[in-house]
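[audit] Reproducing an earlier prediction to check determinism. Same input, same settings, fresh worker. If the tokens differ from the archived copy the diff job will pick it up downstream; this log only records the rerun itself.
[audit] input (266 residues):
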Amino acid sequence: MTKGKIVEVTDTVSEIKELKGKWKEAIDSILKNATEQVDQVEKIKKLINESFDGNRPKETVQRSDYDTLNKEIEMVKNEELKATFPAKLILMKAMLDTQGQISALTQQQKEAEVNKALEKAKADTTKAAEQATGDDKLLLGYSDDQIEHTRVWLTLIGVKPSELNAKTITAETPLNPYDKGSATYPTDAIMLYGSYSAEGQIVYTSNRNGMINVYPVPSHWQIGAEVANDPEKVRALTQDILDNVQVVTVDVGKPRDVLDLIKIQK
């Protein structure tokens, strides 16, 4: 998301007078996080431009440049964005390590050892880059929804189920489908669940930016007859769920773990 788009969304939200309470707080939090992410990424790109000529580190690059860039990358909260920068760090470290090795060599050893050090640095860089891109390619061919479902499950449940099911809950569907008076879902939601209830259940809506809104919906509606037979009490109970939706950042996770879970999706 660009800074201009964030401003546009912020202006739109501010014009919606009906948007209050926890929903507005959640949206404000999302927009604040998005703004911070954009600013952080712009800062990192500026540091990279100062340290690189194209895709090659400048010969004048210093260890302090590497440390500063590494520190700023670590501050990126969105793991997908963070994953786009390590290759630059690998190249900088290879250059710095090579420079360090060269400076420590004696004059007699320089020519032969320099070539050896450069070849090793090149091989290490190539190997690291191939490994990183190899893992990324594991998820090619799978849909964004498949990948998101598995990442959400790994973030919130963390334990591999015997199978992973996903179904869409359409907007206006009652949170409690069994008793009259239930509040309804304001937008389409996703329910994830295993082959049996003990494996877990998640109900959420996606913000499509690495963050989701989690609804604390119980897997079983075991409420007493006094509440179940009173629509007002049912509404109050289910409205409390809507009022306690939590915004959660989804961990990107390891590609192989994500692929493992995709294979058992139904």
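[audit] rerun output stored. Observation attached for the diff report: DSSP finds ten helices and seven strands in the chain.
[audit] end
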